[in-house]
Amino acid sequence: MPATDWWRSAAIYQVYVRSFADADGDGTGDLAGVRAKLSYLAELGVEALWFTPWYLSPLADGGYDVADYRTIDPAFGTLAEAEKLIAEARALGIRTIVDIVPNHVSDQHPWFRAALAAGPGSPERELFHFKEGRGEHGELPPNDWEGEFGGTAWTRLPDGQWYLHLFAPQQPDLNWAHPAVRQEHEDVLRFWFERGVAGVRIDSAALLAKDPALPDFVEGRDPHPYVDRDELHDIYRSWRRVADEYDGVFVGEVWLPDSERFARYLRPDELHTAFNFSFLSCPWDAALLRASIDETLAEHAPVGAPATWVLCNHDVTRTVTRYGREETGFEFAAKVFGTPTDLALGTRRARAAALLSLALPGAVYVYQGEELGLPEVEIPRDRIEDPMHFRSGGTDPGRDGCRVPLPWDPEPPAAESWLPQPPDWPAYAASAQERDPGSMLSLYRAALRLRRTEPGFGDGEFGWLPSASEVLAFTRPGGLVCVVNLGREPVELPGHREVLLASGGLRDGLLPSDTGVWLRV
Ligand code: ISL
Fold first, then answer.
1. If you ran DSSP here, which 8-state letter would residue 339 be given?
2. Quick one: which atom of ligand 1 is closest to the CA of 166?
3. Sign of the C-alpha dihedral, residues 478, 358, 4, 304?
């Protein structure tokens, strides 16, 4: 495979900078911390790092409220440090992916401040969606759209106008029909590609374009006023021309139930890849997972794009907690206060799921802490920071529970971290897991090493093997076979020469419940 095709098979590690590693001991992760852990990441065996937004930000939404795309937030470091980090990682064979948030900016971004100052009717306001309200005195929002975090998607200003924000009020939506908005983002892409980044993750990629009439939402009406509008494809085609100048690649955050609509973003002149959220939100059930895998491969094939496999990220319940819960369906990935979890069961399944996702064809994402088997944390209510919690009126725990700073060592850090680590987290410390061959970290290291050295893994041929309905079994080139038992009873393994790796012990040659194995046949 040519070197420029690295993204078709890469194992990509998501770094939530604020919670990764804290070098200056102020309780918040930073770039110096990432640089200090590059050898850990190289040893883990990942081929690229995706950094969640590290730009100047008031952190009203964990950095997804960007005040300046060309400045690193001083809490994290400096641009010069980011450049060093990109180069040092590259020297270790690790590429960098930055996170671009094109749907909105921070309310502290110079454009929005200028728009507020310039007042109604000004050209500055045309970069956003400012509107008069409805009702006798404009006291009602311009339309009935609800924000992704709950509540109306509009906020009224003292001058009477309202502005649109699909997320928090501190995240005003940009007007993508405006040429300056397009120009600015292409300049920002160039800015980061010039600094050596290999790829860009596109936040909320299907939400940028809005119906210019900003009509009320009507269930089932096509096209949707702001999700997956056709205008987006022209935007991404011109982004692709920029990326191609640098051999840069895109991964889109595209949550769409319709696979044909989803695949449009992956046409050869648009985005290279998109996250596979249907796999992430699929419960631990052989038939459902098999269907999700089939559907994923079928939707990618016509456009020639590789699939991606994602078990968790900074927005969803951590894998070991999710797989230890009873309920199924999409709520499964969403967050609920006080849902009982069987962590031992969830961990066993998460280990098997790791072997499953790492053996499937395409690229794969690992979210920081997944390799440590961290569970979701129930954050004390008075420590929650996520706007999703507050916008839900306190009913939704929000997403902080998967964003707790990583435990590197069994000794707690000198300064308490910005989100508190639970008292039992020393047991998950990376330095302790490194020495334990049975740990989640050892499993991930071994699996990622095999994935790199065995050419049959990554993008390429895939075929199901006949198996019991509760078992997922498939072949990859070079005689590689992955078998995962989701049933209650141990099952026999296909005839094989060698067990390469197992997520748990085999018993009398049988594969126990909730266990996965890689074989060579
Ligand atoms: O669009 C959705 C469903 O149709 C949402 O799920 C949406 O894609 C998702 O919430 C977007 O998440 C991303 O953007 C947010 C940020 O808070 C998240 O952390 C980020 O991953 C706003 O920038």
1. -
2. 22
3. positive
Q: Which two tokens stand for residue 51?
A: 């950094």
pLDDT in tens, 69-102: 999 999 999 999 999 999 999 999 999 999 999 9
Task: Look at residue 55 and give its three-state secondary structure.
Answer: strand
Read off the tokens for 53. 């937004």
* Beta strands at 162-164 and 130-131: parallel, antiparallel or unpaired: antiparallel
The tens digit of pLDDT for each residue in 119-149 reads: 999 999 999 999 999 999 999 999 999 999 9
Q: What is the dihedral of CA 150, 152, 156, 160, to 10 degrees?
A: 180
203 is annotated as an active-site residue: yes
Q: Is the pTM of this model over 0.90?
A: yes
**Rounded to the nearest whole angstrom, what is the distance from the C-alpha of residue 439 to the centroid of ligand 1?**
32
C-alpha span between 238 and 32 (Å, rounded): 34
- Report CA(339)–ligand 1 centroid distance (Å): 23
The Cα–Cα gap between 487 and 290 comes to: 14
Residue bearing tokens 């050419």: 455
Pick from 302, 219, 214, 227: which is nearest to 257 by CA?
227
* Section 273-301 average pLDDT: 96
Shortest CA distance to 425 belongs to which of 408, 438, 440, 439?
408
Model pLDDT, residue 340: 84
State which of 203, 229, 396 you would mutate to test the pocket of ligand 1, scoring each by most atoms of that ligand within 8 A of its C-beta: 203
In the block, tokens 């089939």 appear at 294
Q: Is 111 helix (H, G, I), strand (E, B) or coil?
A: helix
Give 436-483 as a DSSP string. -TTSHHHHHHHHHHHHHH-TTSSSS--EEPP--TTEEEEEETTTEEEE
Rounded to the nearest angstrom, the distance between the alpha carbon of 105 and the centre of ligand 1 is 14
Give the nearest ligand 1 atom to 315 CA: 19
Average pLDDT score over the chain: 95
- Rounded Cα distance between 269 and 329, Å, is 34
